[in-house]
Each structure stands twice: as C-alpha cells, then as structure tokens.
Amino acid sequence: MNQHYKFVNTPLPYSYNAMEPYIDEKTMYLHHDKHLQTYIDNLNNALSQYPEFQTWTLEQLLVNVPSLPTALQTAVTNNGGGVFNHQFYFSNLTNPAPSQPVGLLAESINMEFGSFQDFQNQFKTAALSVFGSGYAWLVVNAVGQLAIITTKNQDTPLPLGMCPVLNLDVWEHAYYLKHYNLRGDYIDDWFHVVNWKNANSSYRRCFGMEP
C-alpha cells in the first residue's frame, strides 16, 4: 500500500483461499476487500478536507493524532488505525508457515517468555481477554523488550512508543464465518499461518537492523 494520501488497497500477496483450512476464503475476501476498503475510503474522505496533512505518512498521522485538528483526530484514530492494523495483520500470514519463530525473534521470545509454548499461552490469553473488538500484539516496548499487549477497536501501539512485531485481529469479522463465537479456535488456527520470517524482519527493523 502507498504510504500517503490517497491511500489505495493493494491486492493481497496471496490468494483468498491461501490460508485454508485455517482462515476461510470468504472471510479473507470480505476482510480485505470490504472491511479494509471501507477504512481506506473513510480515511481518504477525511483527509480530502486537509491538504496540509496529505503528505504525511500513515504512521506520522497515527503517532501525531493529538497534533491534528480536533475534527480529524477521531477519523485518523479509527480509520487510519484500521488501515494500519489490517495491513500489518495481512502481511504476517503465510501458508505453509514455519511452525515456530525464527532468527533473532526466536531467541528473544525464548529469553523473554521462557519458551515458545509459554509465549503462545500468554498471547492466546491476551487475545481472549479483549472485550469486544480489538487486537493482540507482540511489540518491542519503549525499553527495547518484547511485550504482549492488547488494543481496543482500531487503536495501534504507535502512539505508545512501541514497535509492532506481530498482531492478531480479534474483531468478530476476522473469524465469525468459520469459527462462529469460538475465538479460541480461531487463535489456535491463526498460529498455523503466522509468517514468522516476516515477523522476524519486523523485529529486526525495530532495532534498525533492516531497512
């Protein structure tokens, strides 16, 4: 996706059915082509009235929400956050996927959480704890440590000074067609399609090790 207004919904880097049987084809289509597109359209509509902010990147907008005009703040938080969060979520899916983290991220997960299994358990607990709509995240926090956090609605970790490594969308539209109300089953299936190679690259970028 381009980084400035007007934002465009670029195609997924894989087919809609690529995550089967873990994430179904219809959900992927609706999630990307309908839900994400709505956030992009709403963000573009909001920014169309403010040419002075049209050169800002999406991350600049999200980090500097308090500096934006009051009338623009909610639109950027909700719709800009929706664009960022969805794009990040889709970028971290692949099938077949490595069964465990790789590279420097694998080492850091073992160091911070004790083992990959312990990390999985803690991440699932966090994702299940989100009341209503939101996300579970693996981030690098302000002191350079891995941490698991949750955000509500379309909030992002960026204004908190945190660098995203991985996120899981737990809005019902991300899983309801296949998993109904069983969010835990969706989380278990999601672990089968995590793009750990890409997550490792994101982790390294948090420390300036990759462009």
From TrEMBL:
Binding site for Mn(2+): H31, H86, D169, H173
Documented EC number(s): 1.15.1.1
GO molecular function, one term: metal ion binding
Leading EC class: oxidoreductase
Function of the protein: Destroys radicals which are normally produced within the cells and which are toxic to biological systems.
Protein name per the record: Superoxide dismutase
All copies of domain Manganese/iron superoxide dismutase C-terminal, residue ranges: 103-201
GO cellular component, one term: cytoplasm
Family: Belongs to the iron/manganese superoxide dismutase family.
Source species: [Clostridium] citroniae WAL-19142
SUPFAM superfamilies, A to Z: Fe,Mn superoxide dismutase (SOD), C-terminal domain (SSF54719), Fe,Mn superoxide dismutase (SOD), N-terminal domain (SSF46609)
Manganese/iron superoxide dismutase N-terminal domain sequence ranges: 10-93
Keywords: Metal-binding, Oxidoreductase
Enzymatic reactions: 2 superoxide + 2 H(+) = H2O2 + O2
Cross-referenced PANTHER family: 37S RIBOSOMAL PROTEIN S26, MITOCHONDRIAL, SMALL RIBOSOMAL SUBUNIT PROTEIN MS42
PROSITE patterns: SOD_MN
Listed InterPro entries: Mn/Fe_SOD, Mn/Fe_SOD_BS, Mn/Fe_SOD_C, Mn/Fe_SOD_N, Mn/Fe_SOD_N_sf, SOD_C_sf
Pfam families, per database record: Sod_Fe_C, Sod_Fe_N
